[in-house]
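Sequence of AAA family ATPase (Micromonospora antibiotica).
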Amino acid sequence: MSTQQVGVELRLLGPVRALRDGTELVLGSARRTAVLCVLALRAGEAVSRDQLVDAVWGDDPPQSAAGNVYTYVSTLRQLLEPARGRWTAGRLLSSGGGSYQLHLTPTSVDVLRFESLHAQAQRQRSTGHTDAELNATAAALRLWRGEAFAGVPGPFAEQQRSRLTALRIATAERYAELLTGRGRQQEAAQVLRELMTAHPHREEPRRTFVVAPPVAARPTDSRVSTGGSRPVGSPVAARPVELASRSTVPSAGIPAAAPAEPPVRIDAAPLLGRDRELLRLRRAVTGVAAGRGGSILLEGPAGIGKTALLRAALPHAPAGCRLGWAVGDEATRDAPSGTLRDCVESALTTGPGRRAVGAQATAADPGGEPGADQAGDRLLADWGDQVDATDPDRTDADVATRTVQLVRRATTETPLILVIDDLHWADPATLRAWETLGAQARELPLLLVAAVRSGAERAVGPATAETLTLGPLDSRSAGALVRAVASPPPEPDDLTRILDDADGHPQYLRQLATEGIDPFPGSGLVAAVTAHLSPFPDDTRQVLRAVAFLSAYEVRAPGSQPAGCTMAEVGAVTGHPADDLARMLAPVRAAGILAPGDRLRLRHRVVARTLCESTPAALRVTLCRRYAQRLAEAGTAPERVVALMLVGKALVDECSANWLAEHVERVAEAAPGIAIAVLAQAHAQHTLDPARRLTLTAWLARLLLRADRNAAAEAGWVAARTADPELAGEMRWIAAHSHERRGDFETAAQIAHAALRERRIGGHWIEQLRLLLGRIRPSLPGKPTEPQLSRSRLLGGGRPSVS
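Predicted 3D structure, token representation.
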């Protein structure tokens, strides 16, 4: 097949990007991207499936690796050629004979362009054409946008990353050398400085930098172009280590390598709390080896541990059986029977009929190649002829029927175990064939095991299928998991919070144990929550964010579950009618994202907290202000409005301060903790109207005292600024009483004496302060019979004196 001239461009010298006619394509999973990278660097060559498996997984591929490659290629073909007919062969990404070939010109892949320009520069150097070499070297370096293959897993990507990084460094060093030869020392210094910053342990750029000929500093050009303050020349040579540690602004010619986004960390840990389910699966495996088949459906929310359980129960094919694995993928639903083919193909390419590579031929197989499995190969060939053959009139039902026939044939050779994870994403033909096979499995040496997400729309199981539902881990198993994963083990208080936040969810337990309890954008915890919510439409996810905001601040007993919010509150802030909300949230309830009950709350506190804290600050402020305003307009309880103000962490402005002053009494009565938090924010706002700020701070002092907290500073602040005798007396008494509660009797007496001496307070508060002085008199310094303060002065409010 000739190379196709298409508008596809692949950029691998940095975060991997694929563009078709200038539009960026969403490549999806990291391993799918890794497959594309391998094919891209070998564009125009046939790459076998085994080579792709080795390149992506290395020496320890999973059972489903071969099938996954097929799925990844099918998805990539749909991405790169969206106009290709369903039953037509790929022209840009073709397959045949168990291998795949990407038909792109070298100019469509930036790595190949870089290598071509580097080779061109080498040729120019050998002929002495340094100007042409300089141009080719500069063009090669401009292709880089960061670390090559950033974030791509697998030994192939790692090897290429290392090779290309070394080639980039050598090219940059030669570029600096060429610049220096033309008297462009400042540009050369900039290039070397960037190399030293990105690769501080590499000696070559450091030596080149140190021995670079100095240039006299000129008044108009005495500073490094990146904003540094050191003149180029001997000062640079004198302190190379310091310069290596300084950050610089990337030049246009050599962009600094962007750090790859850290992968989600899922630490290895023992399978805990799943003994019953593990035993059931292992018994089913024993049964199929003895000829007794069946169908098992493993159900549970995302991240609950379905995949971990499958791997623990089926780490390898039992003796005398074939084991096939596949993973459903939303992007492969247009490949008829593609998911089931991945599963069957992985079973037929490994198993009892395929000898180990390198084994000697036998009389029964005199001419076969090492590793040959004639029965499996015949079945795979028949699959291609009967299932994958191009036929525009075929339906999903036709494909399913032929698939069932081939699977039944496979069971006549040896017992067969087929496992499909995330079956809810499988194509319609796979689902239809799986249902048919499930109804027949008991009559065959065939065990079907499927994992599906709770609430997912599916048609996967006949009435005979046995369902195992995975729920949260019990507290004992959850604690054991956290202690097994965390390093060092968490403190008791942190462990309690982790268990409360995760509510037995294994993936959240792992993330919290390894990353800590405070999520941040880009963390594995945020990625996990995002992945769990990604199957739902955008408007549903926005409603869930509103639920998280509305539930963030609540008054509840320690250890109790949050009460959540009402459907009316969510409708008020989102503008969705109740019927629409019920429809939008139905699949979320079925998937276990929402807790059961009439009120709406996210089942796992960590999800609610992550949705709040990972929302960009500016957006969080905007949303919460809008939600608070809508709740206030709807006549919602004021404490609910104030709670949203706190979630947004927005400054209290004049509008919200006026509203707060009007409703503060109600908020203080219903939710004093929330009231204290928002009043403290108001007190800190120096731009508020002074009278309004004074009123709100007085309420803050009252509530702090009620909460048995120190209110002296706030009360003293109000007393020093108010002209109202009643308010001044109340604040003086609060300040003195706060010190009395803390046992600071001398300061309490001083505040009371000062207030009584000024005589600017109301009569009620004069009496209260005198009563306070009477209470604390026995505790003041001096002997009770010979106190330092005379009784007349103490009770009359005159100037203190020593008796």
